[in-house]
Specification:
This protein is of the alpha/beta class. The chain contains 8 helices and 6 strands.
């Protein structure tokens, strides 16, 4: 365990986006590589529109991520990326969608929604290791909007911060997802890697 690179990943999104599926796939990919991994759901609301937060910790004893401890922040919804920034350690990696799925409070007019420029500024103030991508559009291009999360995981695997690459994720998709949705997700994986390189 001591020679495993420790990586703390904080993931956040909105209920109905598939954040927990993405968390499970990432954890299973780490396991398939023989890495010690812990994953958990910190805060989750199954209903659409609720905030969902989860963690994947590779090579770490504790399953928790405190303020300023996340090596990587993955935001499947940009407003949630901004909200989760306190968890990011200085200089950590941020991978965020640019496409909004406003939570209920914004949809009902109880809260203002920041612009993508506001979010980019907030993220840039914390780190210069930032990737933004239009994950839902990439998902649709692959064949299903939910596949956008796979595109983001693929980009994360290709960013060089994890002890494995996109090929390991592809194997996990083949081993764990129903055959009928594998092709869409493998296409999303390919598009996610390309988006990172663009």
């Amino acid at each position: 365990m001591s020679d495993t690179k420790k990586v703390r990943i904080f993931m956040t999104g909105v209920g109905g986006q598939g954040t927990l599926t993405a968390t499970t796939l990432l954890a299973k990919t780490a396991l398939s590589q023989g890495l010690p991994v812990t994953s958990g759901e910190i805060h989750g609301m199954a209903q659409r529109g609720g905030v969902v937060e989860s963690t994947v910790l590779i090579g770490c004893a504790s399953p928790k991520i405190g303020t300023g401890e996340a090596d990587i922040l993955v935001g499947f919804e940009p407003m949630e990326t901004m909200r989760a920034l306190p968890y990011l350690k200085p200089g950590g990696l941020v991978l965020s969608s640019t496409e909004f799925l406003p939570p209920l409070s914004v949809a009902m007019g109880q809260q203002e929604c920041p612009t993508i420029d506001d979010i980019r500024k907030a993220v840039s103030a914390c780190t210069d290791k930032v990737y933004f991508m239009a994950s839902q559009s990439i998902g649709l291009k692959a064949g299903a909007v939910q596949a956008g999360n796979i595109a983001m995981l693929a980009a994360l695997c290709a960013a060089g911060e994890l002890p494995f690459g996109p090929e390991a994720l592809a194997e996990t998709i083949k081993a764990n997802l129903p055959e009928k949705i594998q092709a869409v997700n493998l296409k999303a994986l390919e598009l996610g890697v390309k988006a990172l390189e663009a």
